[in-house]
Amino acid sequence: MTWSVRAALAMLGAAVSAIAHGQVVLQGDAQVFGLASPATIAFDATGRVVTHVAGRVRLRSGFDGTRAWSDDLGTPPRTLHLRERDEVRLLGAVLSGTWDDPHGPLVLADGPLAEGGPAEVAFTFRDGRPGGTISLDASGRPVAMRLDAAQERGETRLSEWTRVGEVWAPMVVERSGGGGSVVMRFKPDGATRPDLSSFAAPEPTARAAFEGDARLEVKRAKTGHLLVKPRIDGREVGWFIFDTGAGATVLDKATASELGVEQFGSIPVGGIGGYVTSPLSMPKAFTLGPATIHSPVLITLDLAPIGAAIGEDLAGIVGYDLLSRVISEIDLARARISLHDPRAFDAGGAEWSPLIVYERHPCVKGAIEGHEGILKLDTGANPAIMVTAPTVRRLGLLDGRETSPTRIGGSGGFREAAKGVLRSVSFAGTEVKDVQAVMALPDDEGMGALRDDGTMGSLGGPLLRRGVLVLDYLHERMMLRPASAE
User: Fold this and answer.
1) How far apart are CA 249 and CA 129, in angstroms?
2) Of the residues 27, 51, 263, 395, which has the fewest C-beta atoms closer than 10 A?
3) Where are the domains of the chain?
4) DSSP assignment of 418-430, as one string?
5) CA 322, chain centre distance (Å)
6) Nearest CA among 79, 84, 93, 62 for reference residue 7
7) Which CATH number is 15-185 given?
8) Is 398 exposed, middle or buried (0-12, 13-18, 19+ CB in 10 A)?
């Protein structure tokens, strides 16, 4: 499970129970989005782990020994990749005690720990993924762990280790970073027999229902954004930005009040400028074109500033909650969008490319001036490409390049950046020369999406409108089909 508090997918508290059939089970309560919720964490001696928070908003993730997965906030199960996978594997390794096993998933910098070893040890993953550091107490138990590539350098602290049955477990877990912190307190008694039978991802149950025409009513804003009109609880509420770069669907606060939709809890919401804290809402139904989802968890934000910037009265933003349940055909150039059932879509023999869903965003393998990495696909972004600060620094993209200052922003405010031309950008079998780019400043240590080490940057409208973008989150595949084929 990802440790990002921005998406609030942190490990959540529990009281410790006993070992049953080789599993260690932690049960109890957690504070999630300002709400008290029951929680369960199960793990075994091999590093497999499942975390389940079963409150008003469900959070669940796991690692089955090979695949890491999550179905947070009631969305369909997805495979975790990159740092998100690393985080859940690291959690399983630390809880199971396999983190310092010479044959375990981690490779310690100085080999296996010996008695009286270092207070902090560096590690990498045995499969070659970058690692981080684990801090130890005097007895050699982990008290803090951090991935070097973790956004905002978030840290997980473990304390009050207590022996329960045949195992040791931390009674307090605190996570800081990603715009906030989460504190979990455990209890070593009052446990019940676990009902978790598997570490594998559950079968998808949070699908959309489909009925009617696949083609949406679409309007183009003066900024180029595509706007659509969903219905909430059967009522049309206004224009929403259709945004693959939105990790959640957003409902404007004034619109939520007008609809009488209850607002509850709070969640840190991250954007380019940083983080803001926002309540959640849960209408009975959200319908866009032919697709309807029931009891979706929406983020509630004041969208008036964004609406003013694009010249529209905005009621919301369509994001991951809906997009993860449909196949989207997006023609940015001709302002056309269609939604299809992933279980019945016919691609007509067209060739798919791999899609990576990372931090609730669609991503593809690509390259910047020949340097390979992961690029987000963001239909809500106006620049052709926005490059992250770690990538700008690592590749020296500002060295000797003619640039001019600019400002970029979104949720959380604005940041200084640089505009310049990249020699080439490649993705989905396409190479584009002389690309106008917005580049985060390499020494920008502030919070925000452009501090992410997991991706190189985000591809926006000017590149994505080169064809019809087809996204299938469920089957992790995409295509950029020539518009002439329509």
Assistant:
1) 31
2) 263
3) 15-185, 218-340, 353-485
4) EEEEEEEEEETTE
5) 14
6) 84
7) 2.50.20
8) middle
